[in-house]
Amino acid sequence: MGAEVPALPNMVAGGVWLVVGLLVGWGVRWLSVRLARWETLEPGARPWQVYGPIAVTGLLFGIFAWRFGATQLLLIRSLWVAILVQVIFFDLEHRLILDRVLVPSAVAALLLSLVTPELGWLQAVVTGVVTGLVFMAVAVLGVIVFKAEAMGLGDVKFSVLIGLMLGFPAVLSAVLSGVILAGVVAIGLVLLRVRTMKDSIAYGPFLAMGALLALFRLPGA
Question: Do residues 131 and 175 lie in contact, with contact meaning Cβ atoms separated by under 8 Å?
Answer without folding.
Answer: yes
